[in-house]
Request: fold
Amino acid sequence: MPKQTDDVKHLKVPDDLKLSLFFVGDDFIFFDSSKSFEETLEQDFFAYDIYFRYKLDIWLPWINHQESIQLLLRKWKVNREELDNLFKNRKSEEALKSMIHSINYFLCYLYWSNGENVKNLVKWESEIEKFALKPINSVERLRFIMKKPNHYSAFIQLVQLFEEYTKIYYKKNAIKK
Reply:
């Protein structure tokens, strides 16, 4: 466990963000000001949303989301290739960690591209229902994915969600210009 300093802070995950897929028990994350945005995304689930709760001086990825979305999509592309190989080789248990990270990336993508930080993972369904931008039946499909994330069918559904939502996102940005 890193020692808490001015550059590294030990933060308790708020209860309303403790969805069991991502957090179990009294989870803590670490804010390390020396880490890049990409390193932080890889290290902790919903880190920037948690940092925001603690009123830390951070970049807000949902305000100017073009850059953060590009990084999320690059991270997804790497994970997708890894997951594709794992599922092809019937290593579904090994795929679990990468699937959970990919679900995290998709949820951040959905929230941030709608100009929102992740406020409540316990009630994620009702929050997503309110979004103007989202794939068709996104709540039902995410529920399916989260129920058995190491199943091949969940991976295929996540691939489809990313593909559909990316089209929606880019179409919205093209119209906006």
Notes: Strands lie at 8-12, 28-32.
